[in-house]
Amino acid sequence: MGLPMWTSPFPLMEAQAHAIVRAFADPSSLDPITEAVDIIARAENFRGAGASTCLAVAKTWVRFVGDEQWISRDELYEFAEGVESETGTLPIKVREWEKECYDLRDEVRSAWEGLEKSGKVREWLKDVGKNGVQDWVDLVYRVLDYARRRSSSASARL
Questions:
Q1: In the chain, where the domains are located
Q2: Gene3D superfamilies attached here (predicted)?
Q3: Burial status of residue 94 (CB atoms within 10 A of its CB: 0-12, 13-18, 19 or more)
Q4: Does the pLDDT value for residue 137 go beyond 80?
Q5: Closest CA to 12 of 86, 99, 136
Q6: Residue 73 CB: number of other CB atoms within 10 A?
Q7: Residue 145's pLDDT band (boundaries 50, 70, 90)?
Q8: Model-level pTM?
Q9: What is the pLDDT of residues 13-64, one digit of tens each?
Q10: With 70 as the cut, is the pLDDT of residue 157 above it?
C-alpha cells in the first residue's frame, strides 16, 4: 500500500485498505497464480513500453496515466465488495464528479488561492459539510464558476 504518483492519493489508499482487509479476512479470495501472472504481465507491458531496467519498471509501476487510477480504484472496490466500512456500503465505482474535479484541480486551486487573498474564504466555507460530501462537491463547482466568471470579466476588460 502506498502513494502512487499522479493520482488522487487518499481515495486510492482507502480503496487499497479495503482490499487489504478483504485479503486478510478471506485469504482464499486471492488466487496466487492469477496474481503472479498479472504482476508479470504488467512488468512486461512496462518493458515493452521502454522501461529497460528493473529500476525503470519500479518507477513506472507507481505512475498511473490517464484513467488508470480510476480503473484501479474500481477494481479494488470490486474486489473488496462485501467488506463493511464505518460509513456503510463501499462505493461500487468512482463517481464522475471525482474524475471531473481531479481534472480541474489546477483551476480550482488557482481560484481558491484568489479567494484566500481576497479574505472571502470564511464566507465561502460557511456551513459547508453540514449536509455531507455533496456540500464539498458543490463548493468545488461554485469555486470553478467563480474562477470562470473572474476570467471572462478580466478578458472583457482587455
A1: 9-80, 96-157
A2: FAD/NAD(P)-binding domain
A3: buried
A4: yes
A5: 99
A6: 23
A7: very high
A8: 0.75
A9: 889 998 999 999 999 999 999 999 999 999 999 999 999 999 999 999 888 8
A10: no
Please give the pLDDT value at position 83.
Answer: 58
Does the pLDDT at position 86 exceed 60? no
* Residue 30 backbone dihedrals phi, psi, to 5 degrees: -100, 135
How far is Cα 43 from Cα 91, in angstroms, rounded to an integer? 29
144: cell is 470553478
- Contact between 52 and 66 (Cβ < 8 Å): no
Q: What is the 3-state secondary structure (H, E, C) of 22-57?
A: HHHHCHHHCCHHHHHHHHHHHHHHHHHCCCCCHHHH
SS (H, E, C) the chain: CCCCECCCHHHHHHHHHHHHHHHHHCHHHCCHHHHHHHHHHHHHHHHHCCCCCHHHHHHHHCECCCCHHHHHHHHHHHHHCCCCECCECCCCCCCHHHHHHHHCHHHHHHHHHHHHHHCCHHHHHCCCCCCCHHHHHHHHHHHHHHHHHHHHHHHHHC
Q: How many CA atoms lie within 13 A of 107 on its CB side?
A: 17
